[in-house]
Amino acid sequence: MATCRAVRMRLAPRGALQKFLRPVSALTPSAPVLVFDSGVGGLSVLAEIRALLPQAPIVYAADNAWHPYGQKSEHEIAARVPALLGRLAERYHPRIIVIACNTAATIALADVRAALDLPIVGTVPAVKPAALASVNRAIAVLGTAATVRQPYVDRLVAEFAPDCLVIRHGSPELVALAEAKLRGTPVPAEAIAAAVAPIFAQAGAERVDQIVLACTHFPLLRDELAAACPPGVALVDSGAGIARRTAFLTQGQPWPDLPGEGRKEGIAVFTANTPDLPLLTPALNGYGLTRIDLL
What we know:
Layout: E1 3-6, H1 17-20, E2 33-37, H2 43-52, E3 58-62, H3 74-92, E4 96-99, H4 102-115, E5 120-121, H5 127-133, E6 138-143, H6 145-148, H7 151-160, E7 165-170, H8 172-182, H9 189-200, E8 210-214, H10 222-228, E9 234-236, H11 239-249, H12 261-264, E10 266-270, H13 277-286, E11 289-294
Parallel strand pairs: 1-11, 2-3, 2-4, 3-10, 4-5, 6-7, 6-8, 8-9, 10-11
Helix pairs in contact: 2-11, 3-4, 5-7, 9-10
């Protein structure tokens, strides 16, 4: 059973970030990898990091008080995320922060890097590998509405998929379904099918052979999404690439002596004490998160 401890949080004005968001601490084996998302979707990235760095202590932070980010404005996200990550860094002294949220990374990554003297790994929609794998030169980018409309995605398409038909679709419904699945709620196949149907209703969609899962929630529904897509369509996400980057940036650093020690001490941090937290406990434990903090 996870334990729960309340911690007060106060977000600073965005203009004040440079004054205090530069935590300095000696790197010890217990310094965690901090994985951040608006909700529990980043657990899909955490699983990949665990596979490469099983000895890593983990703090997983979910801004569930503000979930979902895909329905917030760019200005709101750009103001909140650096301040929130700064408070998390001050409290948990991570060795690296992984922003396991496409929406937060595409909007606020530069601000976070400017505010924190820590390695920051952002989540980039997997447009490049999808384009490289596409035989029909047609891919879809499936994410939140906020992510798929970002200029960042425009740049990825221009650089890595200039000769591809690229169909974009934002689906807040899939975010909610992924969260519900982790709470133990059955996911109706018809709801998944309805969420992805707009992709295949667009002109040229019959050529699509790669779908970029541009939201870290969506790999949690990989089996359901695969069943809802036409035969021959592959699902591509960036979780493994994020894990490899995290491993690269932390190579040579001290870790706990016993493999798995970090897993035993994994912490899940939430920004709101919502009624569904007890329902998430079994899923969190399955990812090695055995303690719950409230920020």
